[in-house]
Specification:
The structure holds 2 protein chains of 2 kinds.
Chain A: H1 2-14, H2 18-21, H3 24-40, H4 44-60, H5 65-73, H6 76-84, H7 92-114, H8 117-127, H9 130-159, H10 167-198, H11 218-235
Chain B: H1 13-35, H2 38-56, E1 59-62, E2 65-68, H3 72-79, H4 81-97, H5 106-118, H6 120-131, H7 133-162, H8 171-213, H9 221-224, H10 231-236
Antiparallel strand pairs in B: 1-2
Classes of the chains: A mainly alpha, B mainly alpha.
């Protein structure tokens, strides 16, 4: 997953599509619109149209296919449980159950690969309690440093044969290894705290205000929102019954 | 198994709206409690949240499957209830942004992950005198996982109850659905029990290590009475600032 973190972070920061240049606020609005429509619509037609639109948006944002596939496939197991309960209903019910989470997941992927995390978290941190807003920034930053440690630890355990030991030993050893990461995390938190004090932490990490910088490229995002509205009105009644 | 996050658009709105409301209440409750810990607690929470996210990426081979850890139980012991609830929310929100679990169900996913983890420290404090730190963390982790699992099953049951027209009217189809659910439940139950055992063993190893090298990071029953939610370990460790 962390490779995914790094990949997403790189795509969001280094990408140069119109989606990347548009403001984070309009992109958040787009995701809100798409997820709301996906959750409330009973029409498979609307969902298919939204899905196709999001695939096109992800491709035009140069999202790797593997990432898109992973996002679309992740909710499958959970959806399968509910789809199984709908086998005797209309044929479009299971389709709707699979398509809804796919639309939401692809919308999320499109958002994170086109928006650097400070721009993404800044508007969210303004509506969340102070500690949570700060936690979002600091946790995301911490993942990168700690993952490198976790990855090295995993390689060491594999190379030294810890993963080939009996199940009970394997997990207890793994727990001890994770303990070293927890210690590292504690040390890191102390350094971070001292840095925050040195920099004059006022009780709130304020994200930059780039998320409010609108550009000409916001037109495309607004167009995508309008398109979702049009397909919803047009295809709302496309159902099996 | 609490790592299997619920996606968008499957559960009935009444359920996920209730989840969002309950989570908002939980955050409102935990905010002032966690704020008393100050920036140092926020830094510690974030480091442990980062570890949870990083460790979730590390697959552990079990026969044909890979298991992804959550560490929710041990982190719950180290942090305490209020900060743990906040960490659960942050981790769930970041995962939702990565397409793992939905936006509308951030509330339910937080509750499933967080409520179990919030019980970890009280269970640990009750049992540490009799069992010692390693076993107490294992017990706290098992309790945390079981509560999370029960929460997850409860969400499933409630969603089935609240979804109209489920299973249709045809007898054969209904039997088919029942069969699929029976097999599914057997598989899921076995996986859930395996998850509880694995996380408990991990918690055991982690606590054994911490008790050996940094026992001050583990909360102690006497010092915790009246202490801030970060626990005595966080506030009393290294008064000189040495790390």
């Amino acid at each position: 997953m962390n490779n995914t973190f790094a990949q997403i972070d790189h795509l969001a920061s280094a990408g140069d599509s119109p989606w990347h240049r548009s403001s984070a606020l309009t992109k958040l609005l787009l995701v809100l619109t798409y997820v709301t429509l996906a959750v409330v619509t009973p029409s498979w037609g609307v969902l298919v149209a939204l899905l196709v639109t999001l695939v096109a948006m992800c491709v035009s944002a140069r999202a790797p296919l593997r990432l898109m596939f992973a996002a679309a496939a992740t909710p499958f197991l959970f959806a399968l449980i509910f789809a199984a309960a709908h086998v005797s209903t209309d044929w479009d019910e299971p389709l709707v159950l699979f398509a809804r989470p796919m639309v939401a997941s692809l919308a999320a992927v499109w958002l994170v690969i086109t928006t650097p995390y400070p721009d993404l978290f800044a508007p969210l941190s303004r509506v969340l309690p102070r500690g949570i807003g700060d936690g979002l920034f600091l946790t995301y930053r911490a993942v990168f440093a700690l993952y490198a440690r976790v990855e090295r630890m995993g390689s060491t355990l594999r190379l030294r044969g810890a993963m080939a030991r009996p199940m009970r030993d394997r997990f207890a050893l793994l727990g001890e290894a994770v303990g070293t990461v927890v210690l590292s995390g504690f040390d890191r938190s102390q350094r971070l705290y001292q840095t925050m004090q040195l920099r004059g932490h006022s009780g709130r990490i304020c994200g930059c205000r780039h998320y409010l910088e609108f550009s000409r490229d916001d037109f495309w995002v607004c167009l995508a929102i309008a398109w979702a509205g049009v397909v919803s009105v047009t295809l709302w009644h496309v159902r099996a019954r | 198994m609490s790592h299997l996050h619920i996606p968008d658009g499957i559960l009935p709105p009444a359920l996920w709206i209730a989840g969002l409301v309950l989570t908002a209440l939980g955050l409102a409750w935990s905010g002032p409690a966690a704020a008393r810990g100050g920036p140092r607690l926020i830094a510690y929470q974030s480091a442990l949240g980062g570890i949870m996210l990083a460790v979730m990426a590390l697959p552990v081979p079990i026969t044909a499957f890979d298991y992804c850890m959550t560490l929710a139980g041990p982190v719950g012991v180290l942090l305490g209830a209020a900060p743990m609830f906040q960490v659960s929310f942050v981790v769930t929100l970041i995962l939702a942004l990565l397409g793992q679990g939905g936006f509308t169900v951030v509330g339910l996913n937080t509750l499933v992950l967080g409520l179990g983890a919030m019980l970890a420290r009280p269970v640990y404090l009750k049992s540490v005198r009799g069992l010692g730190p390693a076993r107490a963390v294992a017990l706290a982790t098992a309790t945390s996982q079981l509560v999370s699992t029960l929460g997850w099953v409860l969400v499933l049951l409630l969603s089935v109850r609240l979804t109209p027209d489920l299973a249709g009217e045809h007898e054969i189809a209904r039997g088919l659905v029942r069969g699929i659910h029976g097999v599914g439940a057997a598989i899921v139950l076995a996986m859930l029990l395996a998850a509880v055992a694995i996380e408990s063993l991990l918690g055991y190893g982690l606590a054994r290590f911490l008790a050996r090298v940094r026992p001050d990071l583990l909360p102690s029953p006497s010092a915790t009475r009246g202490a801030a939610p970060g626990g005595p370990s966080l506030h009393e460790a290294h008064p000189s600032g040495r790390t």
